[in-house]
């Protein structure tokens, strides 16, 4: 019996669906038996499906049901991964939810979901990263943060989401400098619109699943392309992966002509969700 141990232990949050699941499948294909994919999210049945797809490519897998809005579960995820494999080479902070609501449409009693969204999109990354740091320093590993173009440019109808993604962007930018000497790279990814179900189960003004997307999705990027760009950027230890030409342009145009960027952001909304 082979006693070979995987040399790439990769923990991915939000691995039950969308970008996280696709990243796991792509790395499983790329590394085969050299990889152990530690898959975390709330839906355990879906995680097992993704794990079985990864094992078909020869990779090792571990499923850890995790709600990243709970700091205890974030710490447990990392300690179970470390105990199982004896190392952690990469942590991908990808779990996230979306929301679509004009701020003035949110009733005072419903503002609690702003806090919950922040716990999932931002605090979940902070808690998981903090627990993983000793392992990543030991392996001179990699941290990945899946932010969003909404973490570079404020998007109307997405005040909660943009706030959570700006928080991620700032946190990981500061942490990147702190981790220079220990040699842990931090790659922040800024996807634009990607063809997943995130906006359909995102929240509406009342904090309930919206059931539909408020964005024009005609030229959405495929989840395969998005995951490939993140995977490449992480392995190259790139600082940032800004995914679309529009995103790269918007970022610089914002410094020169912010009103023009606001107009572009408004144009991305469907008519029925535009500010009145
Ligand atoms: N799709 C886009 O257009 C787009 C654009 C920019 C940025 N992003 C970012 O990319 C990341 C992945 O999004 P996606 O499009 O792949 O969305 P998705 O298909 O809806 O997948 C989201 C993943 O996050 C997990 N998740 C949600 N809440 C969680 C919680 N409390 N604890 C643990 N896991 C949780 C979900 O699993 P469970 O439900 O099983 O927990 C699922 O695996 C997100 O951070 C998102 O903000 C997406």
Provide a brief overview of the structure:
The chain has helices at residues 18-31, 44-56, 71-85, 112-139, 159-178, 223-235, 245-256, 258-267; strands at 8-13, 35-41, 60-65, 90-93, 142-146, 185-190, 240-242. The protein has 276 residues and is α/β, with parallel strands linked by helices. NADP nicotinamide-adenine-dinucleotide phosphate is lined by residues 13-20, 41-43, 46, 66-69, 94-97, 120, 146, 148, 191, 193-194, 196-198.
What are the main properties of this structure?
single chain, Rossmann fold, 276 residues, binds NADP nicotinamide-adenine-dinucleotide phosphate, alpha/beta
Give a written overview of the molecule:
This protein is α/β, with parallel strands linked by helices. Helix content is 45%, strand content 13%. The protein has helices at residues 18-31, 44-56, 71-85, 112-139, 159-178, 223-235, 245-256, 258-267, and strands spanning 8-13, 35-41, 60-65, 90-93, 142-146, 185-190, 240-242. Strands 3-2-1-4-5-6-7 form a seven-stranded parallel sheet, with helices on both faces. The mean pLDDT is 94. The structure holds NADP nicotinamide-adenine-dinucleotide phosphate. NADP nicotinamide-adenine-dinucleotide phosphate (NAP) binds at residues 13-20, 41-43, 46, 66-69, 94-97, 120, 146, 148, 191, 193-194, 196-198.
